[in-house]
Amino acid sequence: MKYKLLLFLTVILTYYEGYAQTRGKGLEEKVQQLTDLTVKKSIVSLNLNKFKEYVKSPPRDYSFIIMFTAMAPARRCAICQHVYDEYLIVANSFRFSPAYNNKLFFGIVDFDEGSDIFQMLRLNTAPVIMHFPAKGKPKPADSMDFERSGIHAEAIAKWIQDRTDVQIRVFRPPNYSGAVAFSMLFILVAGFLYLRRNNLEFLYNKQMWAVCAVFFCFAFVSGQMWNHIRGPPFFHRTKNGPVYINGGSHGQFVLESYIVAVLNGAVVVGMILMIEAAGGVKNTEVVRSQAEGKRRRFQSVVGLVLVCVFFSLLLSVFRAKTQGYPYSFLFK
Amino acid sequence: MTQTTTARQGNGSDKGIFSNTAGFSTLITVTVLSLAWLAGFASRLFAVIRFESIIHEFDPWFNYRSTAYMVEHGFYNFLNWFDERAWYPLGRIVGGTVYPGLMITSGTIHWILHTLNIPIHIRDICVFLAPVFSGLTAIATYLLTSELWSRGAGLFAACFIAIVPGYSSRSVAGSYDNEGIAIFALQFTYYLWLKSLKNGSVFWSICTALSYFYMVSAWGGYVFIINLIPLHVFLLLIMGRFSQRLFVSYTVFYIVGLLMSMQIPFVGFQPIRTSEHMAASGVFALLMAIGALKYLHSLNPKGQWKQLLILGGLAAAGAVFLVVVLLTYAGVIAPWSGRFYSLWDTTYAKIHIPIIASVSEHQPTTWSSFFFDLHVLVCTFPVGLWYCIKNINDERVFVALYALSAVYFAGVMVRLMLTLTPVVCVLAGIAFSILCDQVLREEELPTQQDETEESKSLYDKAGKLKKRTHEQPAPVDPGLGMNVRSVTLILIMILLMLFSVHCTWATSNAYSSPSIVLASYGNDGSRKILDDFREAYGWLSQNTAEDARVMSWWDYGYQIAGMGNRTTLVDNNTWNNSHIALVGKAMASNESAAYDIMTMLDVDYVLVIFGGAIGYSGDDINKFIWMVRIAEGEHPKDIHEADYFTERGEYRVDSEASKTMLNCLMYKLSYYRYDSGGSPPGYDRTRGALPGNRGFKLTYLEEAYTTEHWLVRIYRVKKPDEFNRPRLPLAKRTVPTSNTISKKHALGGGPMTTKRRKGMLKNKPTIVKGKKAVKLE
């Protein structure tokens, strides 16, 4: 009786084990294959068969992040390349991070290789990054929204953490281009100085330094730093034609800031013309002939007109942007 | 004080007031400066005239509170003040975490006036301190510009800075903040620095260091000085302008200034331990090295000294740089702090420090804010810069550096417009002065000529009369002619007039709102005062327990402490990010989760600002997304920013808003029982939407007070025994004789009541848990 029971148990156990093995074989095999694939390349590129085998068919205990894209130059998808670069950074960061495991894989489907998959998932845009969870079907939140979060690797990693609870610390390959450019510039300047070591007069050229300083001021006063940080559009296209000036005082377009810089510059040039016409700072006694007087008078008038017109233009642009601003000069 | 300072200026050439033009010029200087002071003072009084003599905004309330404390308890008690009313339960060591210059300044004025038996309340001193100091700033700017260019330019600059909106934005009456006195200290330090550089005297260097000490005690912006002056010295060294004057003035200033700045408790050992101050010590070492080389050179003037000097200087610079880098790596010197680092890497704060990025003052500057704050100066100051560089000398190197660095910082952060404004005034003053000088000087030439040509017999008399004008030897037509000059003059007048009306308009409309009292204007121009903030804080101080803890977003911490006199959890001194994140998490969680946090923090009252009824856009719902972001930074597991947006990524409050948004504490506290605000009752006028979740009940909180225009809403947090009590019919409420324990058993028995009595689990955790476990098995 005792032995019978034992035998029975053994039989049952073996049976179950075998069953589990046959069932698990698919899974283990798949995971093993995927792991092998990721060793070579951290992003698995998928076609229809592979997609069905690894992503669609049920025995699965891993999540799959897949980017659907159209990388072929003929498709003219400029953003795809950017998104791919960032996506690759995330995949590599995961692949070489200590938290690497076989519960999460990265894949890519190119439209030209797997257009059937696009049809199957009813996708008609690219690029799309989707998450296929280990259990169940993808929900709407499982496709990443580039418009809201942006395409940076950090944003992708954060979204993946949201969906899968796998935390990926994005490790960007250090960007040497800035350092290289900087050192190139340095070497160029140093080399230039060395070549002209016998004639360094130009360094004492105050005019050049003054121009540089004044241009630096124009750049910042016209809000180039705002442009750099916020990245506004160059100008706005509407149905009634292009709009160059942003209507609100809290925003601006790139072109608008250039216009303002030019207006500022014109006022400054006008003022300097006026001062120079009147004799300059040192008031050196230049040869004062009749013709010279005429020329200086003309120069002064030009400066005057420049200051008047361009300052009024600046004021009216400002007035257009600021609601309820009461003052204007020459132009409304 | 103005009179004496300026009189001393003119004294040199002032022998007899009527025989000498210097007498007139002193008179004019004094008159113009006094008028500038008066105009600056008067133009800052809009808020006092429209509302009342009241402290504005947020930070001034803390400054006022600590000044009042200092006046009441004395200076040493103030230095040792531990404020347990802030950052509950942590508290705050006020004496060691504050720049005391502002409090000491107004405390001193208060003490002097009271010694003279002038009984004035400390609040009035605080309210009018900044406008008074604007006059001193004008004088300091005058002195600085006179050092740089001429006294005429100085007068222009003084008049500009007295009224320019970029400065009056921080110094209107009632805005009792560090910047109000710090800009004076900044300008005065720079003036003394240029003076000491010119003279190379120890006396002026010590004065510079003293003024720098005052600046350190007044404002964190002193870092600007301690980096700009070394940069100036460094550039002078590169330009080969080393001199004994430079050596003396910088070394004396650096040593004395360093020692004195370390006397401020808040600064402490930072000047020798942090990267922000390392430029100064590096330049000091470099200057010493070059001074030594120069000395060796003077011992033996022959030989290959020039190359040795250059090489030695380069080697010394490299060595100093390497030492600083190594010490930073070794951890002896702290690296750049986030606030400063974000000035260089402009995207740094946005990614890593949301609490800095959330403040609107820390945003980059658009061109229209430049124009708004500086008007005509913004397009004339490059002219001054141009001529300063074209006619360079030691001092003008400084002003060029000042302008370029300040314009960079102002571009990165709106707030730093304040440091740009003085230098813009100086340079624009120079530009206008040059132009006026030219136009007015030559005005007298043609008349002189006409007379000389027409009547030679009158030459002697006319010549005597015209003696004080510049005599031009050239008889031929020299200049521009009368018409051009008059038109130019008229144009300058028009520009300056436009500038002054713009300044008045901007100060009046944009910068003179106390922001704790709001005004709205009806269609007929009638004014309505909305005094909801003070109503609410008054209610708090009258109707709550003395030690009640009030939770609100950090913006209102100083006001609650200052006006309501109640304990707050977080306030505008945002030193503890995780504490703020905890409050943000409470606001962003649903009611029950928030209740756990609130009981953990012992919160008695919750205060929210809700502007939906009157269309006030600066309310908590609009700031809410920053609370979520800051909370997510510390608690990424519990709070997800995306949950508060709709599927399409919009931030909404109406019926399409996300579920998390509609159920979070902030939303519920804002819209609880809300039925005002427009045609469909309950319409939110700020967001222009009908709230999506209405008619809900609150479980863990109850409404305590709502102000007249719904602007401030105060809720009381219920005690654990006040909510989720089982509702008993009246008949059953009187149980005559029973053992309480057995009753509880009876009530807690059924599964229904267990659920309903969930909140009571805390009292009897073991009993209920045990029962459940048994049932499951």
UniProtKB/TrEMBL annotation, chain A:
Predominant subcellular localization, coarse grouping: endoplasmic reticulum
Protein known as: Tumor suppressor candidate 3
Membrane topology of the entry: Multi-pass membrane protein
Pathway info: Protein modification
InterPro entries, sorted: OligosaccharylTrfase_OST3/OST6, Thioredoxin-like_sf
Gene Ontology CC annotations of this record: oligosaccharyltransferase complex
Keywords: Disulfide bond, Endoplasmic reticulum, Magnesium, Membrane, Signal, Transmembrane, Transmembrane helix, Transport
GO biological process, one term: magnesium ion transport
Purpose: Subunit of the oligosaccharyl transferase (OST) complex that catalyzes the initial transfer of a defined glycan (Glc(3)Man(9)GlcNAc(2) in eukaryotes) from the lipid carrier dolichol-pyrophosphate to an asparagine residue within an Asn-X-Ser/Thr consensus motif in nascent polypeptide chains, the first step in protein N-glycosylation. N-glycosylation occurs cotranslationally and the complex associates with the Sec61 complex at the channel-forming translocon complex that mediates protein translocation across the endoplasmic reticulum (ER). All subunits are required for a maximal enzyme activity.
Keyword Membrane appears in the UniProt entry: yes
Signal peptide per UniProt: 1-20
Superkingdom in the source lineage: Eukaryota
Species of origin: Spodoptera frugiperda (Fall armyworm)
Family as reported in the entry's similarity comment: Belongs to the OST3/OST6 family.
Intracellular or extracellular location(s): Endoplasmic reticulum membrane
Record-annotated membrane-spanning stretches: 176-195, 207-226, 258-281, 301-320
From TrEMBL, chain B:
Cofactor or coenzyme needed: Mg(2+); Mn(2+)
Protein's gene: LOC118275936
Family membership: Belongs to the STT3 family.
Name this polypeptide is given: dolichyl-diphosphooligosaccharide--protein glycotransferase
Catalysis: reaction(s): a di-trans,poly-cis-dolichyl diphosphooligosaccharide + L-asparaginyl-[protein] = N(4)-(oligosaccharide-(1->4)-N-acetyl-beta-D-glucosaminyl-(1->4)-N-acetyl-beta-D-glucosaminyl)-L-asparaginyl-[protein] + a di-trans,poly-cis-dolichyl diphosphate + H(+)
InterPro entries the UniProt entry points to: Oligo_trans_STT3, STT3-PglB_core, STT3_N
One Gene Ontology term of the molecular function aspect: dolichyl-diphosphooligosaccharide-protein glycotransferase activity
The entry's keywords: Endoplasmic reticulum, Glycoprotein, Glycosyltransferase, Magnesium, Manganese, Membrane, Metal-binding, Transferase, Transmembrane, Transmembrane helix
Subcellular location field: Endoplasmic reticulum membrane
Pathway(s) it belongs to: Protein modification; protein glycosylation
Lineage: Eukaryota, Metazoa, Ecdysozoa, Arthropoda, Hexapoda
